Amino acid sequence: MKTFIEQLINGLSLGSIYALIALGYTMVYGIMKLINFAHGDIYMVGAFTGFFASTYFHLGFIPSLLLAMLVSLLLGVTIERVAYRPLRDKSKISILITAIGVSLLLENGGIIILSPQVRTYPQIFQQHMYSFFNGIITISNQQIVIFVVSIIMMVGLQIIIYKTKIGKAMRAVSTDPDAARLMGVNVDRTVSFTFAIGSALAAVAGVLVGIYYNSIDPLMGIMPGLKAFIAAVLGGIGIIPGAMVGGLLMGVIEALVSGYGSSLYRDGVSFAILIIILLIKPTGLFGKNVREKV
């Protein structure tokens, strides 16, 4: 029982991070029907920004987090403006290949600029463990920080989407961009805002991963990016609550596989989940079948 609870807590910590990254995938897909393969690399840039902010500028957790969000936000908006917007009216395959190209550019650019070596993340928090119910439940302060920050970000995103004017514009553009444009919605600005929010959330995930695992490298965005994409598909890509639930499920499943089986199997299980969900319910857990008119 104790092992199960420990793995459950580990899985929810990891799943919270997957959920933050998956939100960026799902928002961009919901607006542009684009799988932004560069999203995992924006997460890497956020992690390194937090690393430099805390290591060389000796900033605390909150300032480092805000700086990482700002840098990733600007990077996401720039990528959308320079690489994706000129191709928005072209075929989907063109913009998809461009996304892969941007991803490779960021990864190899990171290796050239930062070197491929693994960096040790500074210990922003002294680790403390808290035990409850005679040691049955044990949780670290780092895991508590991950939970709290992730919940704040997810609640904030829900408020932006359902309580603000720009959120209403995002929902309108995701439903029908042409109709939204006719109703006076600035589609370009809405798409840029979507990239900005998604990139900022990825940066938060990057900083939290650095704090939790204590190591980062220029290729750190590949596997978490793929798994966050699987989480978005699992929940129903384009559906924000689906990305949150899918991310948490992915984290818990991985932790249980590692705890009761072997960590060697967890990546294989993740991709098996993707295949199974595509075979059984391609729209994801929260998705609905939509009949397209010809």
Describe the overall structure.
The structure is a single chain. The protein is mainly alpha-helical. It is 72% helix and 4% strand. The strands form 2 sheets. A two-stranded antiparallel sheet has the order 1-4. Strands 2-3 form a two-stranded antiparallel sheet. The protein is globular and about 60 Å long. The mean pLDDT is 88.
List the helices and strands and how they pair.
Layout: H1 2-32, H2 39-55, H3 61-84, H4 92-114, E1 119-120, E2 129-132, E3 137-140, H5 141-163, H6 165-175, H7 177-182, H8 187-213, E4 215-216, H9 222-235, H10 240-260, H11 266-280
Helix pairs in contact: 1-5, 1-8, 1-9, 1-10, 2-3, 2-4, 2-8, 2-9, 3-8, 5-6, 5-8, 6-8, 9-10, 9-11, 10-11
Summarize the structure.
GO terms for molecular function: L-isoleucine transmembrane transporter activity; L-leucine transmembrane transporter activity; L-phenylalanine transmembrane transporter activity; L-valine transmembrane transporter activity. With 294 residues, the chain is mainly α.
Give the CA-CA distance, first to last residue: 54 Å
Q: Say what the CATH topology is.
A: ABC transporter involved in vitamin B12 uptake, BtuC
Mean pLDDT: 88
Number of strands: 4
> What helical percentage do the residues reach?
over 70%
Q: How would a crystallographer describe the biggest sheet?
A: 2 strands, antiparallel
CATH superfamily: ABC transporter involved in vitamin B12 uptake, BtuC
* Structural class estimated from helices and strands: mainly alpha
CATH class: Mainly Alpha
CATH architecture: Orthogonal Bundle
Note poorly predicted spans: none
* Total of DSSP H or I helical runs spanning 4+ residues: 11
Q: Determine Rg (CA atoms, Å).
A: 19 Å
Strand order of the largest sheet: 1-4
Strand content: under 5%
Order of helices and strands: HHHHEEEHHHHEHHH
